[in-house]
Write a structure and sequence with these properties.
Elements lengths: L10 H15 L4 H5 L1 E4 L2 E4 L12 H10 L8 E5 L5 H9 L4 E6 L2 H13 L6 E5 L15 E6 L4 E2 H4 L4 H4 L4 H4 E3 L4 H13 E10 L5 H10 L7 E4 L5 E7 L2
Helix pairs in contact: 3-4
């Protein structure tokens, strides 16, 4: 407004603006109103069918890239609960030789993810699959062949769901947020299923909620397939990502 203070706002533009203000006043997230969110330096389409990408999730990308220092190697990457596809697309942009499989049980979320892959020129290197976690992968012959497995799964405990901000609770997809009673139910399923697909020394990288690190470390150490996991903190000092290497 300051840069164009001499210009007149047309009636249609004013209507659009006031409609957007009304939506925001109803606590709808700004990202859904404008239809996009920046992640890893890229603009991603977002709709009410997908979780809005968060800056702290970029720690998954950073971690994966440290495990794949040679960008010319043909890595096989699996992204579970892909949502908007922000993790899969960002990794595809960074790792030009990577072969990426991304699954989600929401058909509408996958439509958004496919559009984001198209926008960023990565459609030919990401295969999007509809189904619950590892379900759609069983017929693809990926057993023991995945180098890096990444996931930002649902991790909100049932008792905390009602206390979330209205922007999150009332507008973002419940499926992408709510995990179950403890908040670690989906993590447990991933930990149990990952060894079948990871190669020797392959890495599992998962985002987690505040205060969940101890429980996830215990789950991974109980699974004799993995080495001792590492817990990484985000820029706010919160334990945000857990990394486990297959023995």
């Amino acid at each position: 407004m300051l840069a164009h203070i001499q210009e007149q706002i047309g009636e249609e533009s004013n209507k659009l603006f006031m409609k957007a203000v009304g939506r925001r006043a109803g606590r709808e997230p700004l990202q859904y109103i404008v239809g996009k969110q920046e992640f890893w330096g890229l603009d991603f389409l977002v709709t009410g069918d997908v979780l809005i990408p968060r800056p702290e999730t970029e720690l998954i990308i950073e971690t994966a890239l440290t495990l794949a220092p040679n960008k010319d190697v043909r890595f096989t990457i699996l992204d579970l609960c892909t949502g908007s596809g922000c993790i899969a697309v960002s990794l595809a942009k960074e790792l030009a030789s990577a072969r990426i499989f991304a699954s989600d049980k929401s058909e509408k979320a996958l439509d958004v993810a496919r559009e984001n892959a198209r926008r960023h020129g990565t459609t030919d290197r990401i295969r999007f699959l509809e189904g619950d976690l590892f379900g759609p992968l069983e017929e693809l012959g990926l057993g023991g062949r995945v180098d890096i497995m990444v996931s930002n799964p649902p991790y909100v405990p049932l008792e905390e769901y009602s206390a979330l901000q209205p922007e999150v609770r009332d507008h973002e997809p419940r499926m992408a947020l709510l995990a179950g009673q403890s908040g670690t139910e989906v993590h447990q399923r991933i930990i149990d299923g990952a060894p079948e697909f990871l190669r020797s020394e392959g890495a599992l990288i998962m985002e987690m909620g505040m205060g969940q690190a101890e429980a996830l470390v215990h789950m991974i150490r109980e699974n004799d397939t993995f080495n001792k996991p590492d817990v990484l903190k985000d820029l706010a000092g919160i334990e945000r990502v857990i990394v486990a290497r297959k023995k």
